[in-house]
Amino acid sequence: MTRPAPETIGRFTIHARDGEARRGSLVTAHGEVETPIFMPVGTQGSVKSLCPQDLRDAGAQIILGNTYHLYLRPGDELLARRGGLHRFAAWDRPILTDSGGFQVFSLKEIRKISEEGVEFRSHLDGSKHFFSPEKVMAIQANIGSDIMMVLDECVAYGADREYTAKSLELTTRWARRCREAHPKGKNGQLLFGINQGGFCKDLRERSLAQLSEIDFDGMAIGGLSVGESIPEMYDMLGHITPQLPAEKPRYLMGVGTPMDILTGIEAGVDMFDCVLPTRNARNGTLFTSRGKVNIRRAEFREDDSPLDPDCSCYTCRTFSKAYLRHLHVAQELLSYRLHSLHNITFFLKLASQARAAIGQGRFAQLKARYAEVFTSGRG
Amino acid sequence: MTRPAPETIGRFTIHARDGEARRGSLVTAHGEVETPIFMPVGTQGSVKSLCPQDLRDAGAQIILGNTYHLYLRPGDELLARRGGLHRFAAWDRPILTDSGGFQVFSLKEIRKISEEGVEFRSHLDGSKHFFSPEKVMAIQANIGSDIMMVLDECVAYGADREYTAKSLELTTRWARRCREAHPKGKNGQLLFGINQGGFCKDLRERSLAQLSEIDFDGMAIGGLSVGESIPEMYDMLGHITPQLPAEKPRYLMGVGTPMDILTGIEAGVDMFDCVLPTRNARNGTLFTSRGKVNIRRAEFREDDSPLDPDCSCYTCRTFSKAYLRHLHVAQELLSYRLHSLHNITFFLKLASQARAAIGQGRFAQLKARYAEVFTSGRG
User: Fold this and answer.
1) ipTM (interface pTM)
2) Choice among B54, B98, B152, B217 that is catalytic
3) Rg (CA), chain B
4) Whether the model pTM is above 0.90
5) DSSP secondary structure letter of residue B116
């Protein structure tokens, strides 16, 4: 890989627009990422069941790591001694790490929030730990991610207005401390802020106004896809996304289904991550150009056709639905990899098609075509 | 793949000898197999966690399928309608199927043996089934395997002499019925007999004498590695193998460790299969040129060196022991594939080195070299 010139790192260029949708590119220390992009999730330093070559074959440009998980295991200091996550996991393309905020807050009963940070117990052994904004910056520096995320509080769905308002102020203060702990440009690692504010539009705007005063390399939308209805999510997405700084990359965290992603792109989002393609691979739910396929279904017992005739992944090039169904029913380990490889390829192709469509001013047609085979329901 | 000329199918050629050890080649309907060879086990139509490309990369020339498992799921008639297991599993090299005898007899409480065959209950749903010699020939014909095995009774370790003697006679009668049900040369599928007789040398010889009257394409040794001590197994191996027809391929079923395989080769065995490399991959036991490695060990936490510097598999070319240990400890699915890929590569390289050593008359040195790092213990 050719490393980009240091002064270009963080540069986000918009190449085309189609309504609010944008086609762009972001330069990171490990190379350029074309947007809109889908980022496969490698929580523990491995995208479930896939090796780096599989990810390259699927067209992955950037993958995610998780600060919380990697801090606990194998440990960020160990990673630093190994030369960082890229070298450890043999992945030489960009890596984004989320701050661990979402994971810690989903621990619920075993964490305690204060101004200073959040105390929590490990889901592995119950041991006590403390994340401060400064600490998560240090951890992500050790991991060596190309894009770091600030520590934020992701409020639960249904949290009241008062709590949400107080929480977003805390997230802002933590965001400022993250920026101060990690001066812009340091080691070429970028830092993104995270917009919170629950499902109150004015609180989302307040969060955004506060974060806009801090010099981030990109802005994320957190706290969506946490239990709300689809219309509620899409409404907030359409409201807040266009208000995010136009000249910086926008990242919708943890979302979502193909229609969620297309709706996000339509609203102006540039980056997405979700465990959906790998999680669904496990239960045999596969995304294809004809819609979702549940490979367990008896109708595929003797189906010699490929899973998706429009897909060029190894799974679709090599095997029939009948064989994939057999592997799944027989609980063969290979099943999970073949399904993951296909689903990840599908999500990356969706992003690639979106980029092309935006460039040609026909994004609405692309979205309409997908809407014919995918409903807006949950993955 | 170029299909061999029909008249050459079944031809076994010995290219070199070194003591009792032989280097040869066997022509099957799906191509030639060099011997001695290790055959990875794909019980349910998939070698655990590996895709056909992985197997080719590892140097696999022939894989195993299991009649019992494939009959139950996906069903041999379904396989026949799909064009056989080769096409179903996208594997165009040779396949050997064992007859299911071993699996059925290990069901113990849920099977009943008679002259006609064996009645058993499925481990999947408890449904009742019947395997006769004729039935397992028909199933293997449907699977389309290149090398079929006769239905045999594999007596348990510790069975008394009387039972063992009666059992081997039954195995002989069943072997004859298998040969009659599947005339030699039919569809290019080869048929191997199976020597039984427990741990009584004279009974092994009696079995062999009876089976030698039937025209098989190769001879297997069954009923070893069933609970006996290593010296007991090696003693029987050294006694019976040289008595097997010299001009036909010899197959030691379900064995074994690297030292078991080298001991088998030394005694004149040509073919081996064992679940050891994939089963051990699951618990993190890896075979290397320096001996067995338990990747869980704390000493590998910060070990940046490859698992086996003498191995050229993807796992060893790409990752450090520290990363492999992390994946294993974190129970990442990728771990199982990387370990399997390495272990299978190791066993295939062992066979390849044995072939080369026999050709050069230095097999004893090769075995001595492995004996320095591998003990003769179980897996």
Assistant:
1) 0.96
2) B98
3) 20
4) yes
5) S
